[in-house]
Amino acid sequence: APDVPVIDQAYSKLSNSITVEWRAVPGATNYMLTAQDGDSFIETIVKNSPGTVTGLKPATLYRITIRSINSGGKSQPSPFRKVKTVLAAPILSVHAPSCDSIAVSWKAVHMAAGFSVSLMRSDGLGRMLKENTTNTSLIFTHLDPGTLYTIKAYAWNANGMPGDDFTYNQRTSPNAPVDVKVAFNSGALRAVVSWMPTEGALTYSVTVSSGLLKLRCNTSSASCIVPSLQCSSEYYVSVTAYNDAGPSKPTDAVSLKTIPCAPVNISIEEDEPGHLLVSWSSVSFGHYYVVFVKSDDGLEVHCNTSYTQCHFQSDCGFTYFISVFAYNKAGQSPLGDILNYTTAPCCPTDFRAVFLSSDTVRVTWAPVRGADLYETRAAGGSGAVLCKDTAAACTLSALRCNTPYNITVRSVSEARGSNTSCAPQYVTTAPCSPEIKNISKEGLSEISVLWQSNNEEAVYVVTARGEAGLWHCTSTGNSCTLMDLPCGSAFSVSAVAKSPAGQSLPSYSVPLETAPCCPNDLIVTQVTQSVTNISWSVGMGAQTYVTTLESPKGEAKCHTLQNYCLLGCITCGTNYTVSLRAISETGLTSSCTYQGYSSSACCPSGVKLYRVGTNGIRVFWRASDETINYHAHLRGSKGNFSCSPSSSLSHCDITEIPCGDVYTVVVAPVTDKGPKLMFCPKKIYSVTCSGSSVGIVIYRGKSNAKHV
Q1: Where do the domains of the chain lie, and which CATH numbers do they carry?
Q2: Of 63, 108, 226, 687, which residue has the fewest beta carbons closer than 10 angstroms?
Q3: pLDDT tens per residue across span 40-78
């Protein structure tokens, strides 16, 4: 075993250890240090000097020995040394009660007679503060806010021997931030709070309070956004800085008034046509209000007021979109309810009433803005007629004729209903249709028409309408006379009433027939001595005719459908009165008188031929009237010959006549018109020759020829 080592010195620098120094022992590889306190001891193996025994108790007296060790074993313990461990370090409890102070406290340390505490900025700036005390706490003041300080403390015993020291880093709390500014975002209802950064602050807390409501925002920067603020509210904003020492004092509160809330209870009234009254409830923190009114044609107007109502001009038939905003220094309130108000549709204009008949009127007007429907009402008489249509026209029927009506056209919209302010238009219906009571003949071409008059201030027009044309008469009474109606015509007679209001429907037509026309031309032709042919032109409207030849000796009459007639039993040489009656299909008769007619003189009798001289012939007859002149005519193959006697003679001579021929001889009275009558009897004579002269005249008989 190695030699016993000798302790040079033993001492304690830490409260839980003792350090031993010795001279090295040859051959020793290790050393065993032993610290004994009563029955307990602690051993530590070390390689060489110095060596330290740890795990000891503070302020405790120990017996320290050392033994050397090698492979052969351990040496005997060295002579002991008594060494006492130093005092334990005080365990500090440190905090910063304010931004410029640090409070330090600790528990009492065994065997300590006093304590020494020092404080210095950790960055080495400034001077160190040191305090010796027998107390277990002290406060360092007048420090820099938000600054990190290093604090060292140890206890010393009655001999002034210092014990272990205890080091603690403590930061003072920060100063309150300065230059706090609040920027309010009215659109997002949030506030941006900013400040100047303060020394030593690690974080900041912004408190926004309003009554019992508190909003907080924590940040490590020098600004913070506080969202979700309420409108029409006043908030108090303060900022507190924080570090590991604690909070600063809060800043003085900054007042923040948010934008006003959107006005509510908005009402719109049209106190009179053309004027809108917009009203609303007062809003907290609202300094003034702006009302925007936009019409559906894009035009917008606004009103600024500090009151809670505004007046606007309005037009009919428009829809207005109305929004109300409140304002203060913070800005404009959020958009509230947008109300729409539709004014009553405009009253129709360009009113026109056109009568289609006396009981039907067509009303038209110009379409107006805002109207979905039109309601037309005609009131008059004992009732009313109503018409509803989407078109700008309406036909009112079943009206009473000759009646005043007030016609009101109201425009109707689904949103606002009917515009009741539209003024009525006064219209009087056309006169009632007259009723023809009687038609009578006043003269040859005059017809009197009588009707029932049932209108006031009406002019009546009677019209006779036929193929011959139109004839009119006018009266304000109940009758008038149609003049110069043509004969032989059929008419339809109707009457209408006219007034400033219009014209009535025509009355029911009454047929009218005028008497047939007398023929313009009538020709009397004597066919034979006792038969006369009468012909005439067609009389308008006549169906049959009755012709009469009348004389003191008698009359001849003929009723025919034709326009001619043969009358027999005519006495020759007689003056007749000629008359004709034209009769229509319905029996109307026109009596027509014409120029008198004289029948031709009677034909002579006893016509004979006698030879006169060498080549002459005498024609002889018996005259029916000595005052009548006669004409003799001979017609043969060798020529025609004639002679006329002087007045009152009953014969005449033909001096040169060829013989050897057969002659037809006619002797007839001479008429006023010159030509002789062709219906007198014809006789045939044969004239023979005797030498170079006329021979015997032989009667051959009567001719069967007829005059056609």
Answers
A1: 7-84 (2.60.40.10), 92-171 (2.60.40.10), 178-257 (2.60.40.10), 264-342 (2.60.40.10), 352-421 (2.60.40.10), 435-501 (no CATH), 522-599 (2.60.40.10), 605-700 (2.60.40.10)
A2: 108
A3: 999 999 999 999 999 999 999 999 999 999 988 999 999
- Tokens 């108790």 sit at which residue? 57
Write the DSSP assignment of 282-309 as a string of letters.
--TT--EEEEEEEETTS-EEEEEESSSE
CA atoms within 13 Å, Cβ hemisphere of 491: 27
Q: Which position has the token pair 């060498």?
A: 614
| Average pLDDT of every residue of the chain | 89
State how far the Cα of 683 lies from the Cα of 464, in Å rounded to an integer: 64
AA identity, residue 553: K
Residues 116, 153: contact at Cβ < 8 Å?
Answer: yes
Measured distance CA(673)–CA(663) in Å, rounded: 26
pLDDT, position 698: 67
Give the DSSP H or E segment for 362.
strand 360-366
DSSP one-letter string for 127-189: --EEEEESSSEEEE-SPPTT-EEEEEEEEE-TT--EEEEEEEEEEPPPPPPEEEEEEEETTTT
1-30 in b/e form (b: 16+ CB < 10 A) is ebebbebeebebebbbbbbbebeebeebee
Residue 11, token pair as written in the block: 């001492």
593 DSSP β-pair partners:
579
Amino acid at 215: L
Those residues with Cβ within 8 angstroms of residue 520's Cβ, 6 or more apart along the chain or in another chain:
537
Instruction: Dig out the tokens for 609 from the structure.
Output: 């031929």
Q: Can you say whether residue 232 is alpha, beta or left, with left for phi > 0 and alpha for psi between -120 and 50 degrees?
A: left
C-alpha distance from residue 470 to each of 199, 481, 559, 584 (Å):
122, 14, 33, 21
Please, which pLDDT band fits residue 707 given cuts at 50, 70 and 90?
very low
Which tokens sit at 477? 């009474």
> What are the phi and psi torsion angles at 504 (to 5°)?
-75, 170
- Are 120 and 129 in contact, with CB atoms under 8 Å apart? yes
User: Which of 50, 35, 49, 51 lies closest to 85 in space, CA to CA?
Assistant: 35
103 contacts 94 by C-beta, under 8 angstroms: yes
pTM: 0.55
pLDDT score at 704 = 41
- Residue 137, both tokens: 């706490």
**418, exposed or middle or buried, with CB in 10 Å at 0-12, 13-18, 19+?**
middle
| Residue 222: burial class (beta carbons within 10 Å; 0-12, 13-18, 19+) | middle
431 and 498 Cβ atoms separated by less than 8 Å: yes
Q: For residue 678, how many C-alpha atoms fall within 13 Å in the half-sphere facing its CB?
A: 8
* CA–CA separation, 602 and 572 (whole Å): 5
Task: Report the 3 state secondary structure along 328-349.
Answer: ECCEECCCCCCEEEECCCCCCE
Rounded to whole angstroms, the Cα distance separating 59 from 629 reads 214
